[in-house]
Design brief:
This protein has eight helices and 32 strands. The chain is α+β, with helices and mostly antiparallel strands. The chain has four domains: 2-117, Immunoglobulins (Immunoglobulin-like, Sandwich); 119-353, 3-Layer(aba) Sandwich (Rossmann fold), CATH 3.40.50.1110; 367-473, Sandwich (Immunoglobulin-like), CATH 2.60.40; 489-576, Immunoglobulin-like (Sandwich). It starts with a helix and ends with a strand.
């Protein structure tokens, strides 16, 4: 008899819940497992908004539970309009912490809606080609505070019905995976959870083998579901996090590393970045992985150089090297390699967003100067922005064979560490009058079958590989110039020249200066201001895409570029051939 009474009571409760639910229409209600992006006060508003559709009710209330325990409750009297409808709106706040919240909505004490496992944390997006979304189906670990939204579809059109929240998985190379963030995205969420006690959401929109052009938005509809850009934007928008993205992480370039596409990469990235900045406003950082020698076309070295120069063009771009990561197979990495990738980029994210004090040697070393030590020209110094070391030979390869001077190997008899320790010394086989130096030309490091090669790489004390550089200008006896004329600067000939459509202009500053770099046509008319700002001492490179200040393509012809700093001026000519 007792069991029968309980059954009748449960049936009555379920029937009343169903009837009440039909009497309430919600326009705002959290989803099961939803992550709300935290604000500057480490909290988020959970909107509960709706309308009671039938008359005769007095109050509506929202109860928030914290880890299943009652935490706060808010009530509102119902006021009906002439259509016998009563609107209500609650804005309870939840905190950014390792806590799950539960929301319950009642009308006159009767439960009409329930949402579980809601959290507050940070949002990141990942995009690019196959190395942006690697797969490991063998990892079974899941965590209630690592969230994602929707399906990863790779190159497949997106089904607009696939809009649910779930726990992140390390899946990636698939076209029908729920909540797939890829191996290193999964590791990144784990690190944020472990080190800072925060939930996170990562949405990964990577598409295998895709070019940067494929990743650009449809100009008529940024949210087009047949584009990889639109698929990611749609998911972020439906998740309600599109205006709360802290950073975009970009791992792409192999598919553009050919002679036709590589020269256009800077302009295409400029367009992509502008779309991100507009659609995910106010995204604060864009983390770019410089691709590693391996699968790709005949201009990998050139494309890596374009990527190396991004921070000089975009103040929100932060670079990370992939040189020196373990487990590379000529194109992809094993799981430990991808997890190491996450460890490296996490330190930069932790510095930029979590006030980490672990900031020593976390950036990849970047070349600053290359110069002859004396007029004999039998020794070249490579100076970096941090400490580096010359590696031992690895797998029968010497680093001397992977540093080209004027486009060729064989000129370096021996390399060694310099003093100070942010310099490397190249002892030459004979005096040279070479003008450019390249680290990691367009070639593979050969490796024994079945092994993943490990260099040799230029690294910093924490093992982070230096950014590769391509045809970096060698200055004549820069050490003497620094001692005798500290205010002097050098403007180098642009490369390539002639060019179409873009070219790179390099110069060296010997102390921090306000710099203006301007392009004029042969008649002396202003065409484009490339840079006008304070720059630090060292080597700088900027890209000119061959357009004027209104974005219109400049005509073929001779142009002059002029560098001004203080009361000093230098200028050179260049040729644009359309």
């Amino acid at each position: 008899m007792e069991v029968k009474i309980r059954f009748i009571l449960l049936f009555c409760f379920m029937l009343s819940f169903k009837l009440w639910s039909q009497d309430v229409q919600f326009s705002r209600l959290p989803a099961h497992l939803q992550l709300f992006a935290r604000d500057a006060q480490d909290s988020a508003v959970v909107d509960v908004k709706g309308t009671v559709l039938s008359p005769g009710h007095d109050t509506v209330s929202v109860e928030v539970l914290k880890d299943h325990k009652p935490w706060k409750i808010e009530k509102q009297p119902l006021e009906y309009d002439y259509d016998d409808r009563a609107a209500f709106h609650f804005k309870p706040k939840i905190n950014a912490e390792l806590t799950e919240y539960y929301v319950r909505v009642y009308v006159d004490g009767v439960l009409v809606a329930a949402r579980d496992s809601i959290v507050c944390g940070d949002v990141f997006l990942i995009n690019g080609q196959s190395n942006s979304h690697p797969d490991d189906a063998t990892i079974t670990e899941r965590n209630e505070f690592w969230r994602s939204f929707g399906k990863h579809t790779d190159l497949t059109d997106y089904d607009p019905a696939d809009t649910t929240w779930g726990l992140s998985t390390p899946r990636g190379w698939c076209d029908d995976c729920n909540y797939a963030v890829g191996v290193w995205g999964f590791r990144l969420q784990k690190l944020i959870w472990e080190r800072y006690g925060l939930p996170s959401c990562i949405i990964n929109g990577g598409s295998g083998g895709s070019s940067i052009s494929y990743n650009l938005p449809d100009s008529a509809n940024h949210m087009a579901l047949n584009t990889t850009y639109g698929r990611l934007l749609y998911r972020a928008t439906k998740a309600g996090v599109d205006q709360s993205v802290k950073a975009v992480l970009w791992h792409q370039g192999e598919s553009d590393s050919n002679g036709d596409d590589a020269p256009l990469y800077h302009d295409r990235f400029t367009e992509l970045r502008a779309a991100w900045k507009a659609d995910y406003n106010p995204v604060q950082k864009i983390y770019v992985f410089q691709i590693r020698p391996g699968c790709g076309g005949d201009a990998q070295d050139y494309l890596r150089e374009v990527q190396r120069q991004f921070p000089q063009s975009f103040n929100d771009v932060v670079l990370m090297s992939t040189c020196g990561l373990q487990g590379h197979d000529d194109c992809h990495y094993n799981t430990p390699g991808y997890e190491q990738m996450a460890d490296w980029i996490f330190r930069l994210i932790a510095r930029d967003f979590y006030q980490s004090t672990d900031t020593v040697h976390i950036n990849p070393p970047d070349i600053q100067k290359a110069y002859y030590t004396d007029t004999n020209h039998d020794q070249i110094i490579l100076q970096f922005d941090g400490p580096v070391s010359w590696p031992d030979d690895t797998l029968n390869h010497a680093l001397e064979d992977h540093i080209y001077i004027d486009g060729q190997s064989g000129y370096i008899a021996q390399g060694r560490d310099g003093d100070p320790n942010n310099e490397l010394i190249l002892e030459l086989t004979a005096p040279l009058s070479a003008t450019v130096v390249t680290y990691l030309p367009n070639q593979y490091y050969n490796r024994p079958p079945g092994q993943t090669y490990q260099g040799p790489w230029i690294r910093n004390p924490r093992g982070v590989g230096a950014l590769s550089f391509h045809e970096f200008p060698i200055t004549d006896v820069i050490s003497n110039i620094e001692k005798e004329k500290p205010d002097r600067f050098n403007l180098f000939q642009n490369y390539p020249n002639p060019f179409n459509p873009g070219t790179t202009i390099s110069f060296t500053l010997h102390r921090s200066s306000q710099v203006k770099l301007v392009v004029f046509n042969i008649q002396g008319q202003h065409v484009r201001t490339i840079v006008d700002k304070q720059l630090s001492a060292g080597s700088h490179q900027f890209h000119w895409d061959g357009t004027g200040h209104q974005g219109k393509d400049s005509a073929s012809g001779v142009y002059c570029y002029r560098l001004v700093t203080g009361n000093q001026i230098q200028h050179k000519k260049m040729v644009l051939l359309r």
